[in-house]
């Protein structure tokens, strides 16, 4: 079976978040199941560099965005296709927004053209390429299933929602430029409250919908999580599947990670102490035997960072320290800097993102705090499990699916892997931090939680099998 995976980013070529990790890992996860996955990416400058210089297909003026060429390449040993469209993707700044702030004003055209090209490739327009199924990821690829549908293509499609909060909504005035038939301007087409909804359109047109955890699949049919699309998702409930993300053990492996000062396994956890000392020095923190917490995230309301900022005085009062790596809302960045000023040597803040440093934090901190208001899957808690960095998580989405709370029964049975709490509130988070501090004081019990987490299998093996089974069910149907 041949599958075209359509996404706006993929690790290690281009990454802004967890979407890239998932897209980058899927081809290897599916190969053992007899599925060849080709990844299709926009031609950002860094991506075009890895593509073959010889174009294999051309569009003279792709959806009015200028000349575009299709290039071939390689993504970690798997097929890669790149849309080299300089007028839309060869620009300085972020993938979706200018460096000065604000989304690129032509994002509607950029990702409509990307989806249009994906549908044409999947439908056999490019000589030498044929596919059985198209797998679209998030709103940036959301128009690919509708383009297949209105072309009456025989190719099946899957739409994966990595975060339903990001929907790709644009004004209705763009519809005439999308090269869709008039009947697509309808409630069961691309129209959404008088505009065009890219994710909404993909959810309508795809043969199956997946989310990145079973709990999130259930949550997004509720108004507090569905972000306005809960009704549509509910009507398609029989075609919605929750498949939890995995992590790549070749990238996230504390026994071989070059970013760590000391490598270790579940049997040699004492070696983590060296990483902890390095983290303390990097963040100008006191070196002591108390718990060292970390946060590695976008600083946003969704991630519950406002709640954490309000709990930092309590965290320090419990004898804890915090090393934070992240960026996001300016007000939240300022709140964490202010906390670091109030508690020098107890709270350290690094604004920005640093991939090697994120590995070191997982390998050196005692626990990672993830107080999200909603979390489709989450990957940092999985990295924490793999590295013996105990996750402290809100009971929502993929966090609820992947962490076993250290309650009395789980501790007695020896199955606990972390700490869960209900609701992103000051009271619930503070209580969870107190539980963590008390558990940490019992070294043997804490080590048991670490080892249980490190022994869990969150590789792509199970998730890859689930995607393969879904693909085959659609093809056979």
UniProtKB/TrEMBL annotation:
<dbReference type="InterPro" id="IPR013534">
    <property type="entry name" value="Starch_synth_cat_dom"/>
</dbReference>
<keyword id="KW-0320">Glycogen biosynthesis</keyword>
<comment type="pathway">
    <text>Glycan biosynthesis; glycogen biosynthesis.</text>
</comment>
<dbReference type="GO" id="GO:0009011">
    <property type="term" value="F:alpha-1,4-glucan glucosyltransferase (ADP-glucose donor) activity"/>
</dbReference>
<dbReference type="Pfam" id="PF00534">
    <property type="entry name" value="Glycos_transf_1"/>
</dbReference>
<dbReference type="GO" id="GO:0005829">
    <property type="term" value="C:cytosol"/>
</dbReference>
<feature type="domain" description="Glycosyl transferase family 1">
    <location>
        <begin position="287"/>
        <end position="437"/>
    </location>
</feature>
<protein>
    <recommendedName>
        <fullName>Glycogen synthase</fullName>
        <ecNumber>2.4.1.21</ecNumber>
    </recommendedName>
</protein>
<dbReference type="GO" id="GO:0004373">
    <property type="term" value="F:alpha-1,4-glucan glucosyltransferase (UDP-glucose donor) activity"/>
</dbReference>
<dbReference type="InterPro" id="IPR001296">
    <property type="entry name" value="Glyco_trans_1"/>
</dbReference>
<dbReference type="GO" id="GO:0005978">
    <property type="term" value="P:glycogen biosynthetic process"/>
</dbReference>
<comment type="function">
    <text>Synthesizes alpha-1,4-glucan chains using ADP-glucose.</text>
</comment>
<feature type="binding site">
    <location>
        <position position="15"/>
    </location>
    <ligand>
        <name>ADP-alpha-D-glucose</name>
    </ligand>
</feature>
<dbReference type="InterPro" id="IPR011835">
    <property type="entry name" value="GS/SS"/>
</dbReference>
<dbReference type="Pfam" id="PF08323">
    <property type="entry name" value="Glyco_transf_5"/>
</dbReference>
<keyword id="KW-0808">Transferase</keyword>
<keyword id="KW-0328">Glycosyltransferase</keyword>
<comment type="similarity">
    <text>Belongs to the glycosyltransferase 1 family. Bacterial/plant glycogen synthase subfamily.</text>
</comment>
<feature type="domain" description="Starch synthase catalytic">
    <location>
        <begin position="2"/>
        <end position="233"/>
    </location>
</feature>
């Amino acid at each position: 079976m041949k599958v075209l995976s359509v996404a706006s980013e993929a690790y290690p070529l281009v990454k802004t978040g967890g979407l890239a990790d998932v897209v980058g890992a899927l081809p290897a996860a599916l190969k053992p199941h007899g599925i060849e996955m080709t990844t299709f990416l926009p031609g950002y400058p860094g991506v075009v560099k890895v593509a073959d210089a010889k174009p294999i297909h051309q569009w003279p003026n792709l959806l009015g965005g200028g000349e575009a060429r299709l290039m071939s390449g390689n993504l970690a040993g798997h097929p890669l296709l790149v849309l080299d469209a300089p007028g839309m993707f060869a620009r300085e700044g972020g993938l979706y927004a200018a460096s000065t702030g604000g989304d690129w004003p032509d994002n509607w055209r950029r990702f409509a053209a990307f989806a249009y090209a994906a549908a044409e490739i999947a439908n056999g327009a490019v000589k030498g390429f044929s596919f059985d199924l198209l797998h679209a990821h998030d709103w940036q690829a959301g128009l690919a299933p509708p383009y297949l549908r209105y072309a009456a293509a025989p190719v099946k499609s899957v739409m994966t929602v990595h975060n339903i909060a990001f929907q790709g909504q644009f004004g209705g005035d763009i519809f005439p430029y999308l090269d869709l038939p008039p009947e697509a301007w309808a409630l069961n087409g691309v129209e959404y409250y008088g505009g065009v909804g890219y994710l909404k359109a993909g959810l309508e047109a795809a043969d199956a919908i997946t989310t990145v955890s079973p709990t999130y699949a259930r949550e997004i049919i509720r108004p507090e999580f569905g972000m306005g699309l809960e009704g549509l998702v509910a009507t398609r409930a029989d075609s919605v599947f929750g498949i939890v993300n995995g992590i790549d053990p070749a990238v996230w492996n504390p026994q071989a990670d070059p970013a760590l000062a000391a490598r270790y396994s579940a049997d040699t956890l004492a070696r983590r102490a060296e990483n902890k000392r390095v983290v303390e020095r990097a963040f100008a923190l006191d070196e002591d035997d108390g718990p060292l917490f970390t946060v590695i995230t976008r600083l946003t309301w969704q991630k519950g960072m406002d709640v954490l900022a309000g709990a930092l005085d309590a965290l320090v009062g419990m004898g804890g320290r915090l090393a934070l790596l992240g960026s996001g809302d300016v007000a939240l960045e300022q709140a964490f800097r202010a906390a670091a000023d109030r508690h020098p040597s107890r709270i350290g803040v690094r604004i920005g993102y640093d991939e090697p440093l994120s590995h070191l934090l997982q390998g050196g901190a005692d626990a990672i705090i993830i107080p999200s208001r909603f979390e489709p899957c989450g990957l940092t808690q999985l990295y924490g499990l793999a590295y013996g960095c105990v996750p402290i998580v809100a009971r929502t989405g993929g966090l609820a699916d992947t962490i076993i709370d250290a309650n009395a029964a789980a501790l007695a049975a020896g199955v606990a892997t972390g700490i869960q709490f209900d609701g992103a509130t000051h009271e619930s988070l503070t209580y969870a931090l107190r539980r963590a501090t008390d558990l940490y004081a019992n070294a043997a019990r804490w080590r048991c939680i670490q080892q249980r987490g490190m022994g869990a299998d969150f590789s792509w093996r199970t998730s890859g099998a689930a995607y393969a089974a879904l693909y085959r069910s659609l093809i056979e149907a």
